[in-house]
Amino acid sequence: MVEKYRHQYGSGLEAQSYLGQNYFSVDRSLIPNFLKLLRDEEQFDYCVDITAVHYPKREKQFEVIWILYSFARNERVRVKTQIVDGESVASAVPLWATANWLEREVYDMFGIKFDGHPDLKRILLPDGWKGFPLRKDYGILQQDQEWVQINLGIESGQ
Amino acid sequence: MTAETKNATNALSNLDLETPEKPYLDSNELIINMGPQHPATHGVLRVILKLDGEKVLGTECVIGYLHRGVEKIAENRTYTMFNPYVDRMDYVAAVSNGLGYCQAVEKLLNVEAPPRANYIRVILTELNRIASHQLWLGTHALDIGAMTPLFYTFRDREEILKIFEKYCGARLTTHAFRIGGCQYETYAGFEREVKEFVAFVKPKIDEYEELLTTNRIWLERTKNVGVISAEDAIALGVTGPVLRASGVKWDIRKALPYANYSEFDFEIPIGENGDTYDRYLVRMAEMRQSLRIIEQAVERIPEGPIMAKVPKVIKPAAGEIYHSIEAPKGELGYFIVSDGSTQPYRLRVRPPSFVNLQALDIMVRGLLVADVVAVIGTLDIVLGEVDR
Questions:
Q1: Of A127, A158, B35, B280, which has the most beta carbons under 10 Å away?
Q2: Reported pTM
Q3: Which residues constitute the domain of residue B120?
């Protein structure tokens, strides 16, 4: 499977493995096609999770990760791509309905936008909240004090 | 027309009422709010319902009331320090959460728990699955209007909590396992008590079924309610008993075995229709299968160490891992990124309740308001895990 795609995509795709788990590092522009290919031709019909990691020191700060599973092959695979802050990724909602809430959570926590998502808004934090808590520059005690004062009527949430 | 009624008509017309051109019972859409404080939402879940009379046209879930930022906390704690936090996600199945986390870190460290530890883990996790299903059954039946099962299930769940308490000192947030195995050796009489529990609870499960399985009210309220097809369930990433009730024979304990589940003989119960009744039957059957696993495990539990050789300071090499287990609610996964330090660089929890809750919308469309309560119950969500 890996060989086939490396041939097809050339340098935009890299297949790796760590502790027996396989993952693909894919160029951002190839993501929509590659995910579709995995679902339609390789039977990865179950999208387990979508998440992201923030690496503030890298030039491309964010890594977006899709964890996919195939019932037919009984196999799990991860797909990841790197993006710079402010760049968006194609939404996977047309491929897997479950991506809806998962992408909203990634947006909520990291501020990464997904193109073509039907209703991209915060999910766990309140709508008016400022900041994205799972970014590395967001402190563990940090809060949107203004929101807390206006909405909860207290000086500080601490 | 008598003079009296004529007067009455005049009086009405004086009131300047709109002439009833529209039908008497207006059918405007109605938006109502269920929760966040509502006993039937099993926590702080707010559901905005769009209704036509009593028919549900659509829903929107507002979640996050219990958001504690577990993933952020993980980045600021060592691997060992974070261990008790996972108990606070799905707090009715704390043992399962701990197993998933410990195994994920073990995988990252490339160590394996010794056989005796695995047996203890399996026994406690399966006991926890029964406790979780019992709590689900009691509260779900209560939501629908059957009050008796609640008392039965809580009475019997107590016996499991007693075993937990004797084993590790805690009843709910157990923190039963450590990275590399178990901290505590089993107490004297553990095997006997577990065997006694199995013998005790077997007829009790029949008792629950006697109350509900052929009960006409129960059938009316659950049959063909909240149907979800296998295709929809897979597309929505639904896992656990909800997926299996739709006819998909998939259980991580069989598909990608972890701990020593491959050594045990058990079946995966599945349903046909994907309705609330089938989900009920699947969970009842799962309790019996869990008992089968416990029986086998307690017979074969070997002697030996309970901790693998794990360094005092846990410092996994840089890399990332995804590990998931079959929690009572579905696939509970941990995605951990290590940068070689003592703290996880990133820890992501793949919560089954969160993903399953997303299916609520398509399951309740076209049903009545009262059925929403039944469907929330049948999804078996725990808000601590939805919001993390």
A1: B280
A2: 0.85
A3: 69-350
